[in-house]
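Table S2 (continued). Query chain:
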Amino acid sequence: RMNKEKNCNETPAVIDLRKQTREAYSGSKKLLDYESGEIVCLSVSGIGKPGGEAYADAIQTLYSFVYTLKFTLKGAGLLDFKILPLECKWGDFDPATTSAEDWSWTLQIRVPPEVTEKQIDDTARIIQERKGLELTPPERVIENGGRWLQLLHLGPYEKLGETYSLLMKEAEQRNLQPVSGRHREAYLSDPRRVAPEKLKTLVRLCVEEKRRDFELYPN
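Corresponding output:
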């Protein structure tokens, strides 16, 4: 059981992480250019086709943990928070030349930094006791902040590449370059309930100023 350091009768204030970086979860159709600090996420990594068995299992694990964690902590009077959208951080590969079965990904749901590794481990035991599921706990990962270019993609996931191309062009025009392995997606729609042409996905590209040649080879 989780350590109940506070009175269970107390209702903790609800933490809304969206308010800390409003641009990051904005549904604006305009291109956004913003800075964000480091964040804490529940995280499950894997390899395989999006929508495949490993991918689906990772999603089930994340949602099982984040909801159980939220309501257990709230019931103990320790912490309460709004659950944010599922996100994906993609590995550093070329989807045009890499088989979908070999795509590497890390699925994440952001949580307050107050959430501890012990609380995550305790949640695994609670899930096993209540639901009979033996799930490997997601990692508690701290993701670095940075500068992001972001666009809202409206439509099927198969056409996300078009939005990435727009972001790459915009980065070039601003004399920016993408940071390797730092492109992310946040899924605002449930594909089980929303038609493909109406799916909303936030596409983020982490960028930095282009280095000039003399900066690449310092004395």
